[in-house]
């Protein structure tokens, strides 16, 4: 009896995906470079379903029914290429290779083209939800040929998370589309976390609230528009106490945020596409700054700022203001994220259904949130929405919160608590809605020092002024 699908790479994510498949009734071939992991999986969880373990890759391939479906779950980059190189000679035309790791979408495009040349299908699939999600229902973002998705769909939609009966798994588009959308998910995850951290920091310093009191604030926020997995776990982390130090857990954690690279990739890709993703960029930069110990130590206690961050504000009113600032900034981050997906979809011809992406993220993934339904509805109302921020729902949400948002950014600046996410988001919002931007002056400067030309508001064409001569205008 051959297995219906195989998983190679049985570290925690691979192991949990394999168990999820088996628990849902699919027979799963298993392989891992060191056999101990395969044995451990079968010994511990063998009773959960049908597992077909193999000691080497050839045996693993042999144990699969055709056309074969192989999920690779190893580290992104060279380790993924190594497994693909070893696997490909063992496969037959029509077989499907799924990379479920956090690959860079450009690598996925390259691998998909290479395997397509050999008659194989390569599916770069985003999988979000961490260990828990992989086991009990992740959000799945597969990219690749429609035929390969048709073959995988029954399994992927069965093991994914579901919201209102709908699977959080949709075919994103060809080649790198799935991994691009997963990368954007992570960029938004970075922005979301940075905004939550700023809200926490401001409330803690301005109002002098304890982490336990702040946990209650986040718990309360989680009953409204902000309801989301990240807000929920923020309350959990803030209410944790450290048994050895006896105080709040958050106070004994080193304040240097690490990153494995997907947030940085998001920002790099958006720069290439020319799409402002300032919320995500500030989140990546804030992590970098937090880890820049040398400069932080040189500056702490040396660079002057306000004497105390405490401000004379009404407690409940300020909490409500910060809630608005957080929600509005979050809407900006999502609007920017969807702009980047739309731009990439156009650039690479992916034809991505933006509303469907919101559906995938409603459950299973790290950024799962109530308001993703609102994004889906916005694209249902208008598939060609130029920006999420101009949709009625989002426009009204920001309209009702923008004064509060401005007060929070002003307070942060006054008391000296850094809020790069809140303020960058607000600047983007004001830039977006401005009737006229100072870009006109920049164009004038460019024309003066480099004859880079400018366009006029009243006539078509490109123009240049003889700045060092008679200042006459010529058409270029
Ligand atoms: C997910 C997560 C996951 C990612 C972590 C860590 O969707 O399940 O995005 O893929 O690995 O969020 O990312 P950093 O280490 O870069 O913070």
UniProtKB/TrEMBL annotation:
Q: Does the keyword Oxidoreductase apply?
A: yes
Is Cell membrane set as a keyword in this record?
A: no
Q: Which GO terms describe its molecular function?
A: NADP binding; phosphogluconate dehydrogenase (decarboxylating) activity
The reaction(s) annotated as catalysed by this protein in its Swiss-Prot or TrEMBL entry are: 6-phospho-D-gluconate + NADP(+) = D-ribulose 5-phosphate + CO2 + NADPH
Active site at 182 (proton acceptor), 189 (proton donor)
> What InterPro entries has UniProt attached to this entry?
6-PGluconate_DH-like_C_sf, 6PGD_dom2, 6PGDH_C, 6PGDH_Gnd/GntZ, 6PGDH_NADP-bd, 6PGdom_BS, NAD(P)-bd_dom_sf, Pgluconate_DH
Amino-acid positions noted as binding NADP(+) in the UniProt annotation, renumbered to this chain: 9-14, 32-34, 74-76, 102
Q: Note the SMART domains from the entry.
A: 6PGD
Q: Name one Pfam family in it.
A: NAD_binding_2
Example of a GO biological process term = pentose-phosphate shunt
Domain 6-phosphogluconate dehydrogenase C-terminal, first and last residues per copy: 178-468
- Keywords in UniProt for this one? Gluconate utilization, NADP, Oxidoreductase, Pentose shunt
Binding-site residues, substrate: 102, 128-130, 185-186, 190, 260, 287, 446, 452
Q: Which family does it belong to?
A: Belongs to the 6-phosphogluconate dehydrogenase family.
- PANTHER family (UniProt xref): 6-PHOSPHOGLUCONATE DEHYDROGENASE
Task: Please describe what this protein does.
Answer: Catalyzes the oxidative decarboxylation of 6-phosphogluconate to ribulose 5-phosphate and CO(2), with concomitant reduction of NADP to NADPH.
Q: What is this protein called?
A: 6-phosphogluconate dehydrogenase, decarboxylating
Annotated source species? Kribbella solani
